[in-house]
From TrEMBL:
This is Penicillin amidase. Keywords: Signal. Residues 1-20 form the signal peptide.
Length: 684
């Protein structure tokens, strides 16, 4: 594994013709104008970093006046090597932003574009295997593993770029984001980073959509085999005998897509002082790289005339033009969660996932604007997009692929299911539509919040038959009632996946106190609650891809969040506790017995009823055995955070980010301070 130092030290939104026109006007543009009149300077950004507990360790300024500042935390270090965690500020045109990121984060950029791209697919097969082989003490094992990764990496770069440039997908992505990729490539080349190519940068931000669309339709293993065989036919030295033998063994059931994501949006009666909170965890394979290369980035784009556009604070890594979580200067926050469905077009994955998060955060000031923007984008596969804004309109967009269906009802997706017996046990689509039309905004977008009323009277009679068909014991009606658990623990759900998968209708877990109170908390995991879309999760290929305990995570996060929100106790600190509920427990103190040390509560005890959810949520929580990929076997909290966690106070636009390892601390950034010509401090 490579190491490198830090170089420089709601109610559902409605569709209106006016908002639709505004979204259409933003398509392909460089984002809506920001509210700022003053422009930040290197000095003002440096002052803002100091106020947030960083020291400036470098900066770069272009002749146009565009600049970047890199800072290192004074308080938060990386578990693996003790280096200070970094953050970036960058302003300029999108092309200049790319150039500047290459200037101030070259090592992380190269690691993401080369090592991460090469190891990502193997990490999809097994993150633990990737860690063990990549860090093997046997040079021969590391050499063979490196050859396999290089061959697969070259294959996905070719496949993703053929899809992007030759199959028309580039035209579906805002041109300014493609220009940023070109700026990154040109900036890298000017600094001698010859392996950081435009093709690899496209793969970083678009490759996951391309891979997922093929996985959901049953052809990812075939695509990878064909790409490596293509290398062999070309006589490429990357196509070694070992690599060829390995990919010939690859089957669809070996491939996973990261599905460990959760989010909570809270507002109104659930929060302290009326300040909305957005907390989300995005887990993706770190591939031995992301945990070191990631850093929060404050991106303040300018148009071609130098006028400020909407600034965004994003969680990601240098080289990723897309963002896994974004919070903009208006207080709009958005993330993306995996949703495995057969409603996918592998030829045209389009504009989706992290590139869509970035573009939406630059185009929309609030949730209604974001709904319209997402509707306008041609997306080729399903994702979940949790979001909220400064008004606390917590919302989840449950999306399938884009459809040109303005004014039409939601599509019937049950024909995607090839199993006739399974299909016969589903509610008739006409009955679903008649009894409870989906909150369908058109273009493959379903809009829900915490008060979404799943049509229980229509759906519930079918669930027991679906469990029986799968050979899965029925958990009882109480498991689907408010506050229930479909599975008693995460291991039980994982064990049932091969039989049941997502072939049932999930409960919504509404809160108590009526629709208004329920809407104050919106929760998402890696599953669709809207039945009209849920049926697309039941396809054969989507069912091969496990979602690590998605239902159990949803149920437990609901129980904890609604207990805390019911007492009006959710603030940013509570958001950090809630979204960390799966974290490993600390190692036991000498002489103590049991799985959890004093002062901590196991979420497994909350699930079993042995611990009170409100008491647990007010303190420190952990889940023994959920994350286990450690760098120190004696310390469970040395496990890698496979992705990152982000919490935002959307009223003050203060954001906390945690990545790297579970024992690492949180970075805090107060976004408004970076966008003024004179920075001011901030406080919790």
């Amino acid at each position: 594994m490579a190491r490198w130092p830090l170089l420089l030290g709601l109610a559902c939104a409605t569709v209106s013709s006016a908002s639709a026109a505004a979204a259409a006007a933003a398509v392909g543009g460089a984002g809506r104008p920001g509210a700022r009149l003053a422009k930040p300077s290197v000095a003002s950004v440096a002052a803002a970093f100091r106020a947030d507990g960083f020291r400036v360790v470098g900066n770069e300024t272009l002749p146009s006046g565009a600049f970047a500042v890199r800072a290192a935390s004074l308080n938060v270090t990386l578990r693996s090597d003790g280096s200070a965690k970094a953050a970036l500020f960058v302003t300029g045109t999108h092309y200049e932003i790319g150039q500047l990121v290459a200037a101030v984060a070259p090592a992380e950029l190269e690691a993401m574009a080369v090592e991460y791209v090469d190891r990502f697919v193997v990490a999809l097969l097994s993150a633990k295997l990737d860690m063990e082989l990549g860090n093997s003490s046997d040079p021969a094992v590391r050499k063979a593993y490196g050859e396999l990764c290089a061959a697969i990496g070259a294959g996905i770069v070719h496949g993703a770029n053929t899809s992007f440039f030759d199959d028309g997908n580039e035209a579906l992505v805002p041109p300014e984001l493609v220009e940023e990729m070109r700026g990154l490539a040109d900036g890298a080349r000017s600094r001698g980073l010859r392996n950081v190519t435009l093709a690899r940068l496209v793969t970083l931000s678009y490759g996951m959509d391309w891979l997922s669309a093929h996985a959901y339709t049953g052809d990812l293993a075939g695509v990878l085999r064909r790409q490596v065989l293509r290398l062999a036919a070309m006589g490429s030295p990357l196509a070694t005998p070992g690599a060829l033998a390995a990919v010939e063994l690859l089957r669809e059931e070996h491939v996973t897509v990261p599905a460990h994501c959760d989010a909570v949006a809270a507002a109104g009666s659930a929060v302290v002082g009326g300040r909305p909170v957005f907390a989300r965890g995005f887990q993706l394979p770190s591939a031995g790289t992301f945990q070191h290369a990631n850093m929060p980035m404050i991106i303040a784009p300018l148009d071609s005339s130098g006028n400020p556009l909407t600034a965004v604070l994003g969680a990601g890594a240098p080289g990723m033009v897309g963002l896994i979580t974004a919070v903009n200067e208006h207080g709009f926050a958005m993330g993306v969660d995996t949703l495995r469905t057969g409603d996918a077009d592998p030829q045209h994955p389009g504009h989706a996932s992290i590139l869509l998060v970035r573009a939406t955060a630059e185009a929309a000031a609030d949730v209604p604007g974001a709904v319209e923007y997402v509707r306008s984008r041609k997306r080729g596969l399903s994702w979940l997009y949790p979001m909220t804004d400064a008004s606390g309109r917590g919302t989840v967009l449950e999306t399938g692929r884009w459809r040109d269906d303005a004014g039409q009802p939601a599509p019937d997706l049950s024909p995607l299911i090839q199993d006739a017996t399974l299909r016969s046990l589903l509610p008739p689509f006409a009955e679903l539509q008649a009894q409870a039309p989906a909150p369908y905004a058109g273009a493959g977008v379903y809009v829900r919040n915490g008060s979404y009323p799943r049509p229980d009277a229509v759906v519930e009679p079918y669930n027991q038959a679906l469990f029986n068909l799968a050979g899965q014991p029925w958990p009882g009606d109480a498991a689907f009632a408010p506050g229930g658990l479909v599975f008693p623990n995460f291991t039980a759900e994982d064990a049932a996946w091969g039989r049941l998968a997502s072939k049932f209708f999930s409960p919504t877990r509404p809160g108590q106190g009526g629709a208004a109170a329920a809407a104050d908390i919106t929760i998402v995991s890696n599953l669709a609650l809207v039945p009209q879309l849920r049926v697309a999760e039941m396809t054969a290929w989507a069912s091969l891809i496990p979602a690590h305990a998605a239902q159990w995570r949803f149920d437990l996060l609901s129980r904890l969040s609604r207990a805390l929100g019911g007492a009006g106790l959710i603030d940013a600190d509570a958001g950090r506790r809630l979204i960390s509920f799966l974290q490993p427990c600390p190692a036991q103190a000498s002489g103590r017995s049991g799985a959890v040390p004093a002062g901590w509560t196991s979420v497994l005890d909350v699930a079993s009823g042995a611990a009170d959810p409100l008491s647990a949520a007010k303190g420190r929580m952990c889940t023994p055995g959920f994350w286990t990929d450690t760098i120190d076997p004696a310390d469970p909290r040395s496990a890698v955070v496979e992705g990152s966690l982000t919490v935002a106070d959307t009223e003050t636009k203060t954001v906390w980010v945690k990545a790297g390892f579970w024992s690492d601390g949180w970075l805090r950034i107060s976004l408004p301070a970076y966008l003024s010509s004179q920075a001011t401090g901030s406080s919790d």
